[in-house]
Design a protein that fits this description.
Helix content: over 70%
Structural class: mainly alpha
Strand content: under 5%
Number of helices: 10
Shape: elongated
Length: about 200
């Protein structure tokens, strides 16, 4: 029984990973279940065994994939003062965008506006609500991190942690979005330190 559960978990992960690739390339409306099954090396029946519909599989992609938080937690755990931690967070986050194909696919899926069939509209709205909750939580977490920087007296006078959090989210998402479109123009890995310094110099004393 244990082996069966483990095999089921592996199959489910294969399907979610394949769905992430397919949805990010063609959008929700343009992706067929047969294409996801083929990418996963499985049958369409396997999809229905683990997920009731394409919309449930789409939701599972967003519910399952979180690659950024562990990278941020590790960057903070390595220690140093607040500025050193923040600089490391920026660099590691930007490096992840370029080095991890799954994270790239998730960003592409998040940034695009797929056409969703009316029959699946309710599921798509739920997905948007879940994404909005994630973004609001991220803003709260980043604002709390900036408050730590204020407590350590690293930020210049007049910085509002909420506004700083909004600026950072725009900075990171904007860079990631631009790079995904113009990968041949610049390297996020190579430019990560310089980009981090530009942002940090705008907020530090």
């Amino acid at each position: 029984m244990r082996r069966t559960k483990e095999e089921a978990a592996v199959t489910r992960e294969k399907l979610i990973r394949a769905a992430l690739r397919a949805f990010s390339e063609k959008g929700y409306g343009g992706t067929r279940l047969e294409e996801i099954a083929e990418l996963a090396g499985l049958t369409r029946g396997a999809i229905y065994h683990h997920f009731g519909s394409k919309s449930e599989l789409y939701m599972a992609v967003f519910e399952t994939w979180n690659l950024l938080d562990p990278v941020i937690e590790q960057a903070v755990a390595e220690g140093g003062n607040w500025l050193e931690k923040f600089r490391r967070v920026i660099c590691r986050s930007l490096e992840l965008v370029e080095s991890n194909p799954d994270f790239q696919a998730m960003l592409e899926l998040s940034f695009q506006k797929p056409e969703v069939p009316e029959a699946d509209r309710e599921w798509f709205v739920k997905g948007l609500e879940m994404k909005q909750a994630e973004v609001n939580k991220a803003l709260d977490d980043v604002a709390a991190f900036f408050r730590l920087g204020m407590a350590e007296d690293h930020l210049r006078d007049g910085i509002d942690p909420e506004v700083a959090a909004q600026a950072y989210m725009g900075f990171f998402n904007g860079l990631a979005s631009v790079w995904l479109i113009t990968k041949e123009r610049f390297s996020l890995k190579q430019n990560a330190a310089a980009l981090a310094d530009i942002f940090i110099q705008g907020i530090m004393k």
